[in-house]
Amino acid sequence: MRPSKRAADELRKVTLERAVSRYAEGSCLVSFGETKVLCTASLEERGPPWLRGSGKGWVTAEYSMLPRATHERTRREVNSGKPSGRTQEIQRLIGRSLRAATNLPAIGERQITVDCDVIQADGGTRTAAITGAWVALHDCFAWMRGRSIISIDPLREHVAAISCGIHKGTPVLDLDFAEDSAAETDANFVITGSGGLVEIQGTAEGAPFSEVQFLELLRLAKGGVEQLVALQKQVIA
Fold it and tell me: Residues forming the annotated binding site?
C-alpha cells in the first residue's frame, strides 16, 4: 500500500486554476496534491539577441521555490548571488518542454518568459510546473491573438509532465515527497498530447532498474499524461 493509499496508477488530485495573476498575460495555479506552483507567462517585445533578424521568437522559463515552500525555511537564492544547479536544471527543462510544443516563428521576434514559483512542495514540483506552465503559455498566446499581436496560435500541441518511480519494489505514478524520498528509482517524463517523448529523466537510487521496469514506468507515465492533457483541454475549453 502506498503512503497516500492511492493505486499504483493513480494521480494525486490535480487542479489547474487560470487567470490567477492580475497583471500577467497568462497565469495558472497548478496543484498536484499538496504541491502548488504559480505559473505566470509574460510577453517581452524583444527576443534574445542571438535571434535578432531571424524572424523567430523564444520561450524560456525561470523556476524558484519560496522560502517556506518546505518544512523548514530555505534561503532565497537571490541572496547567494546565483541560482543553484538544481534550479538551473529545472528551469531549462521547463523551457525545453514548452518550446517542444511551440511554433517559434509564429511568435515573431518576441520572447515569452514563464515564471514558475513553488508555493508549497510535496514532491513533483518540476512536473507540476511544466503542466501548469503550458496553460499559462496558452493564455498568453490567446491574449496576444486577442490584440492582433499574432495571427495564429503558436502552440502546436499540449505538453505535460509526470513523475514515476519504484517504491518498495512496485512501479508507481506521481510520487509525493514520502515516496520520492524513499524510492529505489525516480523518473520524470515529459510527453506531448500526441504521445511524443520530449524528455525522460531517470535515476536508480539503489540497485539498477531493469528494462522491463522502465517500460512499466513509461506505461504509467503515458497514462498519467493522458489524464493531465485531458484536464488541460477541459480548463481551456
Answer: 86, 124-126
172, three cell numbers: 508507481
The number of helices, as runs of H, and strands, as runs of E, in the chain is 4, 9
20: its cell numbers: 490567477
Does residue 4 fall inside a structural domain?
A: no
Q: Would you say the C-alpha torsion 103, 109, 52, 136 has a positive or negative sign?
A: negative
Task: Name beta bridge partners: 60.
Answer: 113
pTM given for the model: 0.96
The CATH number of whichever domain residue 52 belongs to comes to 3.30.230.70
Q: Which residues fall in the annotated binding site for phosphate? A: 86, 124-126
pLDDT band at 199 (very low <50, low <70, confident <90, very high): very high
pLDDT of residue 123: 94
State how many domains the chain has: 1
Torsion angle in degrees (nearest 10) through CA of 63, 33, 178, 75: 30
Mutual angle of helices 125-146 and 85-100, in 10-degree steps: 50
CA distance 129 to 66: 14
**Domain, as residue range, for 232:** 14-236
